[in-house]
Amino acid sequence: MEDFFQGYKGRALEVLKKYNARVWGKVTIHTTRGEFNGTILPRAENDDDKHIVLKIETGYNIGIDIVTIKDMKETGYFKATYKIPEKEFPYTPNLPKVKLFGTGGTIASRLDYRTGAVIPAFSPGELYGAVPELADICNLTTEKLFAVFSENMGPEQYKALAIAIGKEIENGIDGIIIGHGTDTLSHTAAALTFMVQNSPVPIVLVGSQRSSDRPSSDAALNLMHACIAAGHSDIAETMVCMFGPTSDEYGFLHRGTRVRKMHSSYRSTFRTIGDTPVATVSRNDGVKPIKEDYAHRRKDRNVKIMPYFEEKVTIQYYYPNMQPEIIDALVDMGYKGIIIAGTGLGHVNKPLYPALERAHKKGVHVYMTVQTLWGYVHMFVYDTGRDMMAKGVIPGENMLPETAYIKLGWALGQTDDPEEVRRLMLTPINSEITPKEPYNGYLVYQGGVPEVESFIRQFRK
Question: What would be the CATH architecture of the domain defined by 10-77?
Answer without folding.
Answer: Roll (2.30)
